[in-house]
Amino acid sequence: MATTVTFSNDVTRIFEEVQTLAAAATLTAADSGTTYILKATAGKTVILPALKSGINFKFIVGSAFATTDWIIDSAEGDNIEGLLIVNGASVVAAGEDQINFVNSAETVGDHVSLSCDGTNWFVSGAGNAAGSITVTDPS
Fold first, then answer.
1. Confidence of residue 15 (pLDDT cuts 50, 70, 90)
2. Helix/strand/coil for 102
3. DSSP secondary structure string, 18-83?
4. Which of 61, 78, 103, 122 has the most crowded Cβ, counting Cβ within 10 A?
5. Total domains, the chain
6. Residues paired with 112 in a beta bridge
7. Is the backbone of residue 56 left (phi > 0), alpha (psi -120 to 50) or beta?
8. How high is the pLDDT of residue 14?
């Protein structure tokens, strides 16, 4: 949840919630608006909540992980759409289930943002090295 701060001159600023994530997680709609910094020696799986219009998340690689990918997984599947720029190349997501931060290619700062319209997750983001972020439909 965002934090609202009102300054003495009546200027209000809203700060987004930022959390470090080092373990597998199942997110809920109440977690919407949070930026997750992915930090673990081995990747984990994060399951997105059920589709609901207006919810959104951001994921950023915060440290290198050595053995397995970080996976961002849609609870329903076949509904991740959008475009990532990875090492200067377009990576298209069309009806995908997962976004993978790949353990052999990740760079601190690689990131994706997801926004939901109630039917799909729309993804955008960037990865530094070739193959650093992939989108898949493993089912």
1. confident
2. coil
3. EEEE-S-EE--GGGTTEEEEE--SS--EEEPPSP-TT-EEEEEE-S--SSS-EEEE-SS-S-EEEE
4. 61
5. 1
6. 59, 125
7. beta
8. 72
Residue 61: closest CA among 81, 79, 80, 86: 86
Mean pLDDT along residues 111-136: 98
Q: Is the dihedral of CA 73, 74, 77, 83 positive or negative?
A: negative
Strand order in the sheet with 98-101: 25-26, 45-47, 70-73, 98-101, 133-136
CA 83 to chain centre: 13
Token pair in block for residue 52: 């609901």
Residue 82 and residue 22 in contact, taking contact as beta carbons nearer than 8 Å: no
Query: Domain of 28?
Result: 3-136
What's the pTM value of the predicted model, to 2 decimals?
0.90
Top pLDDT among 137 and 66 is at 137
* CB-based contact 72:99 (threshold 8 Å): yes
Determine the pLDDT at residue 3.
59
Q: What is the pLDDT of residue 102?
A: 96
Distance of alpha carbon 114 from its chain centroid, rounded? 6
